[in-house]
Design brief:
The protein is α+β, with helices and mostly antiparallel strands. It is about 25% helix and about 25% strand.
Length: about 200
Amino acid sequence: MADEDLTEVLTAVGPRLRELRRTRGTTLAQLSETTGISLSTLSRLEAGQRKPTLELLLPLAKAYGVQLDELVGAPATGDPRIHPRPFTRYGNTFVPLTRYLGGLHAYKQILPARAPGAGDEPLERRVHEGYEWLYVLSGRLRLALGEHDLVLTAGEAAEFDTRTPHAFANAGDQPVEFLSLFGAQGERIHVRARPAGG
């Protein structure tokens, strides 16, 4: 790898780490506790003021459940297959369907079946920057969005600005699976109804 290429790869690591942390909803303090890397080192690493080393990147890759090449943006090999590493947050399973950081992120999410006797209790709604589009594959997905409390079934889709308070829950006694496309910078999903010029 030429010196210029190496410099370019190393320069891109900080923004990739920052984007990954924000997408996962993790704070620097939480990441510091998980990895054992000091808060100041993590901050300097994300800002590009600290050179990324294996000693720093390996625990970060482990904490995020991604392969090392996803952090450093290793050159593509031409193989289109991705090897998703599922991770769990809030008791729900996320299967990443996109490999690269930045831009839109695609996930398959799996919410376990509702516990016996669980009702329609209020959900803790969260807000963050971005825009989300989702499509239910199977089961019944409860979407609490602003003043609305909806149940989406297989084949139904929804899209919303994630600055609107929102939460998901399983509305049935079977696991619910749905696809989620998320743009951290607020990109909207553009769906073409028919081919151009058609």
